[in-house]
Amino acid sequence: MCNTCGCNLTPGNRHLLQPLAQPSKAAAAPEKILGELLAANRRQAEANRARLDAHGILTINLMSSPGSGKTALLEATIRTLPAGLRIAVIEGDLETENDAERIRALGVTAHQITTGTACHLDAHLVALGLDQLDLDAIDILFIENVGNLVCPASFDLGHHRNVTLLSVTEGDDKPAKYPVMFRAADLMLITKSDLLPHLPEFSPTRAETHLRRLARDAEVITVSAKGGDGIPLWHEWLARERRHYHDLRRQQRSLHPRIQPDGARLHTSATPDIRFVPVAAGMAPGRPGR
Ligand SMILES: Nc1nc2c(ncn2[C@@H]2O[C@H](COP(=O)(O)OP(=O)(O)O)[C@@H](O)[C@H]2O)c(=O)[nH]1
Ligand SMILES: [Mg+2]
What we know:
Elements: H1 2-5, H2 17-20, H3 23-26, H4 30-54, E1 58-63, H5 70-79, E2 87-93, H6 98-104, E3 109-114, H7 123-131, E4 140-144, E5 161-167, H8 174-177, H9 179-182, E6 187-191, H10 204-212, E7 219-222, H11 231-250, H12 261-268
Helix pairs in contact: 4-7
Guanosine-5'-diphosphate (GDP) binds next to α5.
């Protein structure tokens, strides 16, 4: 998929293609070039993490499909921020400054990255974002990734934890359908819980069961950015992760998020692993055969 859509190329890593465009390398297979871009991303991510660690900034990558409530969660987080906790936000979207403006309206520093056509952030883009922030004045940095349930999970940004949002309007089977994303989750937030009374077909238990098959030890919290339910539990999770992070920092160690190699394979494979499920007569599509 992504080796044809070109989403590996972002304004942040385009310069890396120049050495590859030399005559000897120009004929390199696309998957080799994309593999080198991913390796360069990993190196930049480690540099970002070292920079964040030098300032003791716990960095959280928020991932989900578009519209599942990432920015609304950040707004609710800011409105209920414990006294003295300093946060900043890097926003990722294809176009517009809208989300950064929503965050700034609440008095928090936000830097907007627009990726143009790319469906995920990468470590080079985030490095440019870090240049714009006062790293001495941040305790937690949130990175709101581009809305997409596949690609963002494959790119280490130099962050420490992945939080994956699943809104109740999306259906409780999304973890099963998009394993690349949900396998990377350190925490799954079931969002928009205020809408649950209108969506009896969504079962938080079923969503968690699907998640458990992929990420056994990921925590699950149900929240509503609108109603405020679950937001205190979210703050408790953040405080716990921050304590854990600082314990590790005292031992000169850091936290690493789960990065999904299957996504990287999708980005580099010339023949993506596409499986067709035969539909037998009288059988519902997608149901396993007997
Ligand atoms: N009812 C309800 N709507 C929400 C909630 N969180 C977000 N929304 C709405 O969902 C839409 C998308 O939210 P947004 O935060 O922009 O999603 P993002 O694209 O993931 O950042 C907006 O219309 C929000 O008002 C929630 O907790 N409850
Ligand atoms: Mg948003």
